[in-house]
Design goal:
globular, 5 helices, single chain, alpha+beta, 29% strand
Length: 167
């Protein structure tokens, strides 16, 4: 678990299924991240058990639920993913639309970046985003990521690749 002045970041549990259902069905998730076919609460439970928990079990890291300290309200996710087309983990984040532009994604990303070297012995990580996702590109650059190149994933997606050297 990570704590910042305004946020708590923790592992997802099946109790977070309603939030996962909401987040993965937002227009911005579908536009910039993609369709995950989370059509029911059971689909959300399966996603937590079969996708998110798999990261924790296999790598010791994964995406964390981001909650406001005040009221413990879930607002997004931020954490590490291991992609088969990248040799290092990459950071990913997504927030409910009503929490965009409030500095909370930056707060959560910097908290995650601050723990990676000591907790996971990582010297650097990647991040990817689509060409159209200007808001994510700006956040990555604000967090110290530097654009490397355009890549094509194993699924054929075209992404911008960023890298940061960890403090």
């Amino acid at each position: 678990m990570l704590e910042t002045p305004n946020l708590i970041l923790r592992r997802f549990t099946v109790d977070d299924a309603a939030f996962i259902f909401e987040l993965l069905n937002t227009p911005t998730w579908k536009q910039f991240i993609g369709e995950r076919n989370i059509n029911t609460l059971q689909d959300a439970v399966n996603y937590i058990n079969n996708v998110l928990a798999n990261y924790y079990d296999k790598y010791g890291y994964g995406p964390w639920l981001v909650m406001l300290k005040e009221g413990n309200k879930p607002i997004g996710m931020c954490g590490l993913f291991k992609r088969d087309y990248l040799e290092l983990p990459d950071i990913g984040f997504a927030f409910l639309p009503e929490f965009a532009g409030k500095g909370l994604a930056y707060e959560s990303c910097t908290a995650v970046l601050g723990t990676l070297r000591k907790k996971f012995a990582l010297n650097s990580i990647f991040a990817t985003t689509t060409d159209a996702n200007i808001r994510s590109q700006s956040l990555l650059e604000k967090c110290g990521f530097i654009y490397q190149e355009n890549i094509t994933t194993t699924e054929g997606d075209h992404l911008r690749l960023y890298r940061v050297v960890l403090p």
